[in-house]
Amino acid sequence: MGKTILVVDDSASVRQVVSIALKGAGYDVLVGTDGKDALAKLDGRRVHLIISDVNMPNMDGITFVTEAKKLPAYKFTPIIMLTTESQEDKKRQAQAAGAKAWVTKPFQPEQMLAAVSKLIAP
Question: Which residues are reported to carry the modification 4-aspartylphosphate (predicted)?
Fold first, then answer.
């Protein structure tokens, strides 16, 4: 059984591209359409890593990361932000919330997989 990664993005095409790359590398994938949906998916099941967009409707990625880190089961789960944002203050906010890495869109799947493998192995 592979490690499970939760992918959170309001773009169906981004979720699809990321999911295909992760599954091809041997990971199991859960998806969330925004921060609220993703929090509902964090129902105690084992999630080894979270990849989250920053700008999403209903609940943005930084708020989602902050809320996820409050849950004891996910306090130490590594998080990668996958976003078009490149502003340093957003990066600092995400890091303060608990994000461990930052990948800027557009990206090559290999870039994202490299960031994933730095935090967890398949």
Answer: 53
